[in-house]
Design brief:
Chains A, B: InterPro entries: 6-hairpin_glycosidase_sf, Beta-AFase-like, Beta-AFase-like_GH127_C, Beta-AFase-like_GH127_cat, Beta-AFase-like_GH127_middle. Chains A, B: This is Glycoside hydrolase family 127 protein. The structure is a homodimer. In chain A, a hairpin with a 2-residue loop joins strand 12 and strand 13. By secondary structure, chain A is an alpha+beta fold. Chain A starts with 5 loop residues before the first strand and ends with a strand. The longest helix of chain A has 22 residues. Helices cover 35% and strands 19% of the residues of chain A. In chain A, helix 1 packs antiparallel against helix 3, helix 2 crosses helix 3 and helix 3 runs parallel beside helix 7. Chain A folds into 3 domains: 415 residues, Alpha/alpha barrel (Glycosyltransferase); 100 residues, Immunoglobulin-like (Sandwich), CATH 2.60.40.1180; 115 residues, no CATH class. Chain A has 18 helices and 24 strands. At the A-B interface, helix 16, strand 15 and strand 21 of A face helix 16, strand 15 and strand 21 of B.
Chain lengths: 651, 651
């Protein structure tokens, strides 16, 4: 069987869990309304978005000029997509009305032939499809398709879906191998995965085929993107008026056909969006070669180029991968969107083959990089997610200007905030997958799910205080008592698990690909108790990662921890931890909304005996220091900007 | 007394020492001829210089267009200056004839009114003095003045000196506070220190005054450089045709009057050239305020922003300082020219006040950063001098592209190679200084010196195998037996010294400001034996330097050591050294021309038990490793590019 399981759709899963209910509520009640204000340029002291205004102008409802980035439309799309997911789980007539109004404006902005892009409509009307390398035309289309699908699935309303089908049909008539079409693809992958979604809701094979065309055509020599660049006169959208050097095809993963790509390279977000579509197509077209490409690129990325927080992208130059084991903590990029894309890719790989590593990575990126990118108040965001921060360096060393020590209200290029919103709003569909006779639990997020097996429907209730506690209870309610399998992921971080069914400890667990499989006749009210002992661990990096030599990170369950200046003083690099330190975990109800804090006895270089000298003969002089670590995702939520570090020196 | 001592001039000091004779000979026999070939674009596979050709075209001796950087003239100037110093000590009729021919061309390129700059003469004839911020016009003039002075002092020939006096007079008529003059200064300081030299050889106060004017006017509000920028239409030489954002005055140290500057900021080479002129002016005009500025800026630079190799400049963005204690080893800049300028500044500070710290820094920069920038064959150069190199990162991580893992044959911007040549060729004048009754020895470089005291002339012969051995012999030959003082610097790295006069151990040494002072009646043939025990030291950095936390560098005498991959394997970061390790120094006659190598028992993380994983629970598994360190200045002189590291983890 080519496909091992399918995700359980959003509408069939609810989230009811202390940790995540906070986030889904935050997204619903704060993030979506806040971002609506941002998209309408009503956040004081923040960079304006122009996104709604652009659509209003293109719709003939306002006067003015296009503002913001060439891909500004996509911010509205991602916001609408988040609204769709939110409405799917929690109806909200006021929000739905607002969304309908936005959709009305979008529909008005659509051109008679179906074209929909406010930048080209307002600013360069005659220049459609002339700068695919720079201008994100199909990328914006992709995001709006995703929004249309989500909104349709949530509300049953077809208006935006119809708009986007018309646009997709126009795109289909413009791009392809057939005579008279442009043999091209976008500089920023995104439409490929969106078209798969459009195929799923419409059943129209043309969208699947168009996606497959874009993936297959990419990187074919001679390069369309280079020919287009020459034809344009070697100019770029980004530096108007000057002739520039030949663009780097690696940046857009168009240097080789995707089936020949061996390493994860180039712009990280483009890469993972593309890999996600490749995995989708491998599933749908049962394409073994494409599957092998996905496996290879997954390994290159996850085994050699991923930060411990699930961040990817080492350098801000092109927001890109560099090379194996190059994972500096200070000049890092680790864009929020890239980790979100990594989760998309992991979810699809899980459908291709159920292996716990995919869910492990999904969990790692989710609990660390992604939620860490947003402040607890839901109104401030990181674009870059560093593992080491020295605020003065962020300010005064240009190599670290991109690393902000505090979350920002909004960005000129604000791709990340609505991306977080849509991921959290749709989180429920990442928890389970199933096939004819097995239900897989990938994430330990409490709530209720309704899952169809062959000839049966199962209610599965999950209860836990995860990620603070590893004890997870499942209550199984099949429509009919029947033999099937429940499969629970054993996280990579858990060294031993215990499992009880109806109170009875199960010995000799059957474990396949990192999942414990319980096959039996399940009756209404059966319970499974899964115990994942959450010991505090010191983690080390492969010695090929030069940046982490001699260092360890603290991890407990899925959460990576960090030290902050506010708890541990300045010069965090002066702290060292014995490798056999006793690490104590304790719940602190008063800190940051209630979290498990980790403490340990460590040492710190005593600074007081230093005078003005910069160098001196080595004189060991360390003082004891009780250190306190908090979950990485919560750093920067207190007081003034301060130092932060994930990796701690060990002795 | 405002001035405590004066440098003993080049012509009165010869170098005769195993270590340095190699370098002075190399400069004479290889570097100067090689650079002559480079300046004539005759080095294959190297970036062309165009420098000589530009002068030939400007002189009417060839046809063509200006090539290379706007400051390309300065490469010829520095080369000629090096030739001057070399000829001062070692006559060479062939080289002198060649230099005379070059000077003839330069003279022909001078315009009727005295103006001399091939870029503006050939490429922008009407644009003189319209872009002082970018175009290095006075910088180039400064370098050619330095060349003229050096060549005149070496050969007594006035031709280039006359050319440059005419040009300096033109400059004097253009710039100044008087009505009708431009109230400006150059974007790249250099002419200020050059005019002091011109004043010294000509005795003409106008040159001293012009230098003082440039220094005093710099940074006065409203900023001339900003006004000029607006007047030009906000364009820059470096990105033709586009309007750019307001230039950063900090980059050119013109953000404040120099007397108000507190921190060493901006482009490092500009800074130290300016500080050198400031120290010169403080000496010559007995300007206490200027002296205090120099003291303050020295401290900011040397106590807070200097690498252990004497490198300065933390970032390649603007080749600049960043802020206190920000000294990353991998994304470093530490340009060769900046360390050379630091030596210029230190030498002048030593004249203002004799304190061993100045000479310590001079020695540190000289023996590590500066000579390390040139290969042993004299034909390959570093521009950036890193303390940690991972060749793959230099190639594949854009934040480290500027850090080359191998020395280059030449550069498009080739300021550094001729700068090294002129420094080494003039090294003899950094060794001693004197006043009426004291001779100070700052550097332990063997050879002979003739030094004038009040009513006496002293021959001082220095013999040693420094820097390999700390035993230094001086033979004193005064014209007349007389009471005077010999002062010998006690290097910062030496913890205890012994001193014998005529074989007799001197107890209770009188030490003032880091110099041991021997005051007695000196007779012909008296000997002083100074013993500086060269123990191998582990050096640590101030804990505020986050990059070096938990690390140590190996130093022996003035030499900083490093590990190279060729001796110690890959993944140098995996190596750790116990702080109480026994470090063994041994002379290896067969390695790199004969050097003292340092070995120690260390540990290395065993890599063999790692599989494909990137992270895992910490498992200490170290293997013993005998490490071998070589002097930093010799790294990259063997085989293929490999890893290199100065700082070693300690446990």
């Amino acid at each position: 069987m080519f496909t091992q399981s399918k995700a359980v759709p959003l509408k069939q899963v609810s989230i009811n869990n202390h940790f995540w209910s906070h986030y889904t509520k935050l997204v619903r009640e704060v993030v979506i309304p806040y971002q609506w204000e941002a998209l309408n340029d009503r956040i004081s002291d923040a960079e304006p978005s122009y996104a709604i205004q652009n659509f209003r102008i293109a719709a003939g409802l306002a006067q003015g000029e296009f503002g913001g980035m060439v891909f500004q439309d996509s911010d509205i799309a991602k916001w609408l997509e988040a609204v769709g997911y939110s409405l799917a789980l929690t109806p909200d007539p006021h929000l739905e009305q607002l969304a309908d109004e936005v959709i009305d404006i979008i529909a008005l902005a659509q051109q008679p032939d179906g074209y929909l892009n406010t930048y080209f409509t307002l600013k360069e009307p005659g220049k459609r499809w002339t700068n695919l390398f720079d201008c994100h035309e199909l990328y914006c289309a992709g995001h709006m398709i995703e929004a249309a699908v989500a909104y349709y699935q949530a509300t049953g309303k077809r208006k935006l879906l119809d708009v986007m089908c018309r646009y997709a049909d126009l795109i289909d008539s413009v791009f392809g191998l057939e005579a008279g079409k442009i043999k091209a693809y976008d500089g920023h992958q995104e439409i490929e995965l969106a078209l798969i979604k459009l195929y799923h809701v419409t059943g129209a094979a043309k969208y699947l085929n168009l996606s497959k065309y874009f993936i297959d055509e990419r990187g074919v020599a001679p390069s369309y993107l280079l020919q287009e660049f020459e034809k344009r006169g070697r100019i770029t959208h980004w530096q108007p008026g000057i002739v520039v050097s030949t663009p780097n095809l690696i940046y857009t993963q168009s240097h080789l056909p995707v089936r020949e790509q061996k390493d994860a390279v180039g712009h990280a977000v483009r890469a993972v969006y593309m890999y996600s579509a490749m995995a989708d197509l491998a599933i749908l077209t049962e394409d073994q070669e494409l599957k092998e490409s996905c496996l290879r690129l997954w390994k290159s990325m996850v085994h050699k180029q991923m930060y411990i927080t699930g961040g990817i992208g080492t350098t801000h130059h092109g927001e890109a991968f560099t090379f194996d084991y190059d994972l500096p903590n200070d000049t890092i990029y680790a864009e929020t969107c890239a980790s979100i894309g990594l989760i998309f890719f992991a979810q699809r790989m899980l459908q291709l083959e159920v292996k716990s590593e995919y869910a492990d990575v999904m969990e790692r990126a989710l609990y660390n990089n992604v939620i860490g990118s947003m402040s607890l108040d839901g109104k401030h965001y990181f674009y870059v997610n560093p593992l080491e921060v020295w605020p003065q360096a962020s300010e005064s060393n240009p190599s670290r200007h991109h690393v902000k020590a505090v979350r920002q209200k909004w960005f000129g290029c604000s791709c990340c905030p609505p991306n977080v919103a849509r991921l959290i709003a749709s989180l429920a569909e990442y928890i389970y997958s199933s096939n004819e006779d097995t239900i897989y639990t990938h994430l330990y997020i409490g709530g209720e799910a309704t899952i169809e097996l062959k000839n049966n429907q199962i209610q599965l209730q999950q209860e836990s205080n995860y990620p603070w506690d590893g004890s997870i209870k499942f209550i199984v309610s099949p429509q009919n008592s029947q033999n099937f399998t429940l499969a629970f992921r054993i996280p990579g971080w858990s060294d031993r698990i215990k499992l009880h069914v109806n109170g009875e400890l199960i010995e000799n667990l059957k474990i396949v690909n990192g999942y414990v499989l319980i096959n039996r006749i399940w009756n209404d009210g059966d319970t499974v108790l899964l115990d994942l002992p959450m010991t505090v661990q010191l983690i080390q990096a492969n010695p090929s990662v030069r940046s982490n030599a001699g260092k360890a990170a603290i991890q407990r369950g899925p959460l990576v921890y960090c030290l902050e200046e506010i708890d541990n003083g300045q010069q965090l690099a002066s702290i060292s931890l014995a490798t056999n330190s006793k690490l104590t975990a304790a719940f602190d109800a008063n800190l940051l909304g209630g979290i498990v804090v980790i403490e340990a006895d460590a040492s710190v270089e005593a600074a007081e005996d230093w005078s003005e000298e910069l160098y001196r003969p080595l004189k060991k002089n360390v003082a004891p220091l009780r250190i306190k670590a908090i979950p990485y995702y919560l750093w920067g939520n207190r007081a003034e900007p301060g130092e932060m570090s994930v990796w701690i020196r060990t002795v």
